[in-house]
Amino acid sequence: MNKNIAIMGCGWLGYSLAKSLIQEGFTVFGTTTSEDKMPILQTVGITPYRISISEKGITGPITTLLGNAETLIINIPPKLRGSNPENYIKKMEHLCGALKKSKVKKVVFVSSTSVYGNDQGVITDDILPKPTTASGKQLLASEKLFSALPNIETTIIRFGGLIGKDRHPITMLSGKTGLRNGNHPVNLIHLEDCIGIIKSILKKQWWGEIFNAAFPLHPSKKEYYQQIAEQKGLIPPEYDENSRLSGKIIDPSRLILVKKYVFLTSIYI
User: Fold this and answer.
1) Which helix (H) or strand (E) segment is 99 a member of?
2) Does this model's pTM top 0.85?
3) In this predicted structure, what is the pLDDT of residue 81?
4) How far is 87 from 51, CA to CA, in rounded Å?
């Protein structure tokens, strides 16, 4: 296993992943779009590159970055909110073009369970995605771009909602009223398991695969966020009682039963 890893996007997940890999002897090359963040990455042992991808192309030393590693982890979520949503697919097409000219042989593409619609019920890895949101549609199209790259093996991880010690939806939901879909199940995953699954892919060579990744416990939003609010001493959110029972459940059975992955951290943190 080649221990040189490039991470495109050292945000909340990418930065923590890089630190964990470095602790295990990997050499990590990571990107940021911020000049101010360059020394922060360097301080923890990441070799930093300032690289930005837009609809018009890539700025920064992308060729040098991709020349340092045979494995690339892509962790760049779509930015589709606001008055000027980006064309995420176009951005990923530029990255695919750079990959075709590089020595990279393995790709991990961090996607999302938003590629599935809320009416798709219990979702296993063999269920065909039917996205209903703009981000879900663009992510699914981008997954296909990377999976079709010649001479590169791509593994796709569709993470549920990411949570951690310093990141949880309850901080935004606390005290809100009239929220909808309180009977929908939650599909969450802790940062530690996101890192654990990516490291398992690298170490165990799970290439050319697609994984659904959410903690295997799915209480309703109303039940879950009320309990978490109480744990954290926050005002619980209130949901509209007229919410009808629906929503999707992301089933990680293949990770657990076939790959023998053991989840590390509960969603009740």
Assistant:
1) helix 88-100
2) yes
3) 72
4) 18
